[in-house]
Amino acid sequence: MAAPEANRSAAWQANDKELTLKGTEPPLFNVISGTSMSCPHVSAMVAVVKSHYLSWNPSAIKPAILTTGEISTSGPLQPTVYDYGAGEISTSGPLQPAGLVYETTTIDCLNFLCHHGNNTSTIKVIFKDVPAGFACPKDLSVDLMSTINYPSIAVLNLARNQARTINRTLTNVAGDGAATYSLTIEAPNGIKIAVVPTSLQFRRSNNFWSV
User: Fold this and answer.
1) pLDDT digits (tens, 9 = 90+) for 151-171
2) Which of 12, 44, 104, 188 could join 59 via S-S bond, C-beta 3.0 to 4.6 A?
3) What is the DSSP letter of 2?
4) Higher model confidence: residue 113 or residue 175?
5) Within-domain flag for 128
6) What whole-number distance in Å separates Cα of residue 99 and Cα of residue 181?
7) DSSP H/E element including 61
8) What sign does the dihedral 130-134-135-140 (CA atoms) show?
9) Is residue 138 part of a domain?
10) Which helix (DSSP H) or strand (DSSP E) does residue 14 occupy?
């Protein structure tokens, strides 16, 4: 996810005289660029979404932001999904998401670390509050990181003529409750994708489907 980072006006340290012109007082605001500015931009958007949907946790807010990013591929360059990611953050889209969120649980995050080569003991050192009884899956593999319930899907080490099954659980957050969602598939060259079912029907809000 890209967020505006260039020439942002931000509060500045009142005692920082390094950039202060001779004979003047330190400014209260300064123009800054870089990741240090894109991070608070996204954080503010998270706070705005939370103020509209008080029951949402961070893992519900995140896909609302990711799935409503603005993507443009009309330029002379031909970017890939690894270039543009989820696009540029929208300040209005997350307040009116398409109606589906991919909630990532604590177990998903812990399993990510497991598949990355960390054992249960190491994870308990990294995480303060590991759920009781948690243990890394027995079938550990970096290839299985794609099973984490995340809005995007990346499949590693897919060999020619090899098939891979990926599951996702989606929660309906449409304001009017009942909703039907249909899909379109844009598969990369040389890849065949099938999704089952081809449409999702929800009777009320906060229902979930696993596909």
Assistant:
1) 888 888 888 899 999 999 888
2) 104
3) B
4) 113
5) no
6) 9
7) helix 58-66
8) negative
9) no
10) none
Is residue 49 included in any domain, yes or no? Answer: yes
d(CA 14, CA 52): 34
pTM of the model: 0.71
Residue 206 has pLDDT above 70, yes or no: no
Q: Using H for helix, E for strand and C for coil, what is the string for the chain?
A: CECCCCCEEEECCCCCCCCCCCCCCCCCEEEECCHHHHHHHHHHHHHHHHHHCCCCCHHHHHHHHHCCCECCCCCCCCCCHHHHCCCECCCCHHHCCCCEECCCCHHHHHHHHHHCCCCHHHHHHHCCCCCCCCCCCCCCCHHHHHHCCCCCCCCCCCCCCCCCCCCCEEEECCCCCCEEEECCCCCCCCCCCCCCCCEEEECCCCCEEEC
Q: Which amino acid is at 31?
A: V
The single residue listed with the structure tokens 């996702």 is 168
Query: pLDDT tens digits for 97-117?
Result: 767 888 888 888 899 899 888
| Rounded alpha-carbon distances, angstroms, from residue 185 to 10, 67, 103, 141 | 42, 15, 22, 27
Rounded Cα distance between 131 and 110, Å, is: 10
Buried/exposed 42-81: b ≥16 CB within 10 Å, e otherwise: beebbeebeeebeebeebbbbbbbbbbbeeeeeeeeeeee
Question: Which residues touch 98 (CB under 8 Å, ≥6 apart)?
Answer: 67, 68, 181
The answer to whether residue 57 is domain-embedded is yes
Q: How many separate domains does the chain show?
A: 1
Q: Which domain, by its residues, includes 100?
A: 14-104+149-210
